[in-house]
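Postdoc handover notes: sequence design on the structure in folder B. Input C-alpha coordinates:
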Protein backbone atom coordinates (compact mmCIF):
# COMPACT_ATOMS: atom_id res chain seq x y z
CA UNK A 1 0.00 0.00 0.00
CA UNK A 2 1.18 3.46 -0.82
CA UNK A 3 1.63 5.92 2.00
CA UNK A 4 -0.17 9.19 1.40
CA UNK A 5 1.25 12.38 2.74
CA UNK A 6 -0.92 15.38 3.36
CA UNK A 7 0.40 18.72 2.32
CA UNK A 8 -0.17 21.68 4.57
CA UNK A 9 -2.15 24.26 2.66
CA UNK A 10 -1.87 27.80 3.95
CA UNK A 11 -5.12 29.73 4.31
CA UNK A 12 -5.33 32.35 1.60
CA UNK A 13 -6.12 35.85 2.78
CA UNK A 14 -8.07 38.48 0.92
CA UNK A 15 -5.58 41.07 -0.33
CA UNK A 16 -8.26 43.78 -0.20
CA UNK A 17 -9.09 43.06 3.45
CA UNK A 18 -5.37 42.99 4.28
CA UNK A 19 -4.91 46.42 2.66
CA UNK A 20 -8.13 47.68 4.32
CA UNK A 21 -9.79 48.58 1.00
CA UNK A 22 -13.56 49.02 1.30
CA UNK A 23 -14.47 49.71 -2.32
CA UNK A 24 -12.66 48.35 -5.38
CA UNK A 25 -12.26 51.08 -7.99
CA UNK A 26 -12.73 50.14 -11.65
CA UNK A 27 -10.20 52.82 -12.65
CA UNK A 28 -7.39 51.05 -10.76
CA UNK A 29 -6.43 48.92 -13.77
CA UNK A 30 -3.04 47.89 -12.40
CA UNK A 31 -4.65 46.14 -9.43
CA UNK A 32 -7.44 44.60 -11.52
CA UNK A 33 -5.04 43.28 -14.16
CA UNK A 34 -3.31 41.06 -11.60
CA UNK A 35 -6.62 39.29 -10.94
CA UNK A 36 -7.38 38.17 -14.50
CA UNK A 37 -5.65 35.45 -16.49
CA UNK A 38 -3.56 36.07 -19.58
CA UNK A 39 -6.61 34.99 -21.60
CA UNK A 40 -8.73 37.69 -19.95
CA UNK A 41 -10.78 35.54 -17.58
CA UNK A 42 -11.47 36.58 -13.99
CA UNK A 43 -9.54 34.44 -11.50
CA UNK A 44 -11.97 32.55 -9.22
CA UNK A 45 -12.17 33.13 -5.51
CA UNK A 46 -10.80 29.73 -4.51
CA UNK A 47 -7.57 30.52 -6.37
CA UNK A 48 -7.17 34.23 -5.63
CA UNK A 49 -8.12 33.90 -1.95
CA UNK A 50 -10.45 36.89 -1.97
CA UNK A 51 -13.39 37.03 0.40
CA UNK A 52 -16.89 36.78 -1.10
CA UNK A 53 -17.66 40.47 -0.66
CA UNK A 54 -14.52 41.65 -2.41
CA UNK A 55 -14.80 39.01 -5.15
CA UNK A 56 -18.25 40.36 -6.05
CA UNK A 57 -16.92 43.92 -6.10
CA UNK A 58 -13.93 42.78 -8.16
CA UNK A 59 -16.15 41.16 -10.78
CA UNK A 60 -18.26 44.30 -11.14
CA UNK A 61 -15.15 46.52 -11.34
CA UNK A 62 -13.54 44.36 -14.05
CA UNK A 63 -16.75 44.33 -16.09
CA UNK A 64 -17.06 48.11 -15.81
CA UNK A 65 -13.43 48.60 -16.83
CA UNK A 66 -14.01 46.36 -19.85
CA UNK A 67 -17.11 48.30 -20.91
CA UNK A 68 -15.32 51.63 -20.99
CA UNK A 69 -12.27 50.07 -22.70
CA UNK A 70 -9.80 50.32 -19.82
CA UNK A 71 -9.28 46.55 -20.00
CA UNK A 72 -9.63 44.09 -22.88
CA UNK A 73 -12.41 41.50 -23.05
CA UNK A 74 -10.05 38.97 -24.62
CA UNK A 75 -6.44 38.70 -25.69
CA UNK A 76 -5.51 39.70 -29.22
CA UNK A 77 -3.94 36.93 -31.28
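Designed sequence:
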Amino acid sequence: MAVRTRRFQRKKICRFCADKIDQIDYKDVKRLRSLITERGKIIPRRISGNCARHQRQLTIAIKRARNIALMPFTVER
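Context for whoever picks this up: The mean pLDDT is 90. Don't rerun without checking with the PI first.
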